[in-house]
Amino acid sequence: MRIWQLEGQGKEHLRITEQPRPSPGPGQVLVRAEAVSLNYRDKAIVDGSYPARITFPIVPGSDVAGEVVSVGEGLMRFKVGDRVLSVFKQRWLDGVPNPEANASNLGWPLTGVLAEYVLLDEDGVLAYPAYLTAAQASTLPIAAVTAWVALFKHGQLKPQHTVLVQGTGGVSLFGLQLALAHGARVIAISRSEEKIQRIEQLGASAMINSSVMPNWEEAVRLLTSGEGVDQILEVVGGDSLRHSINAAAWGAHIAIIGFLEGKTSSISLPDLMMKSLKIHGFSVGSRKDTEELLSFLEVHRIEPVIDAVYDFVDLPDALDHLDRGPFGKIVVKLR
């Protein structure tokens, strides 16, 4: 079978190689990959900005959807022909993550999914809703689960809440779609006027062009009658956190999700304390979180936003697109 292998830092070290097709052992399933979606994490691992020491070579990628083609001895949960997606942290079933859960990330430290066949633990796969295509299902394991956990598990989203999403990447657009489906109001910020128009078509109630208004929290306060927003999906990092604190309502929840523009931040502790803000850092979610998300999607029939689909051999081009900033998700198709 063909796999993508990263042999060192940088896209120039990506190679398609051949490996024997694996066979599942007890408690494992072999999935014929149909689609793999890319995340900012994949870009960071390839270009060397990921905050962990990587030992090469590795197979990158973490989010796959496909068909079960073989099952290990004694496995009862899945059968050949089932259509499944991967769970990002293979051994995080529920509750608070621990070192073992954090060591079970697909794409590093575990072998990734940019391969024609992928061997996974039965606890690390879930059947996805039949209304979704494999490409759509592949977008869910990191981006959609992250948005779900931020809004519903940690943020306790209510229909009367106002949610702020930053940019137009996968997490932000899933956050917008999930919040709207729950009846909440969504304000979106972006530096691109063209993307702002597309966000409006998805149902955002207000848009802010942060290239025109860098202190965008002032616009947020105007749009909320001075109250601020109840939840913020903070994907930018760095100095953006200061703006998010200023844009937050009293008692608001700020989910720390990304570090696109900085891994450190300087904030005002008195502002944080006086407004009784909750700042929550986390990394994706558990198997149970993924199950809850899939149930919500089944009810609301949310269609993931896919910006582009690339052939398996064109992975470097797909990573370039990711680097430019997509509108939604980038998917690599295998069949």
TrEMBL record:
Pfam families: ADH_N (PF08240), ADH_zinc_N (PF00107). GO terms for molecular function: oxidoreductase activity. SUPFAM superfamilies: GroES-like, NAD(P)-binding Rossmann-fold domains. SMART domains: PKS_ER (SM00829). Residues 10-332 form the Enoyl reductase (ER) domain. It comes from the Bacteria. This is NADPH:quinone reductase.
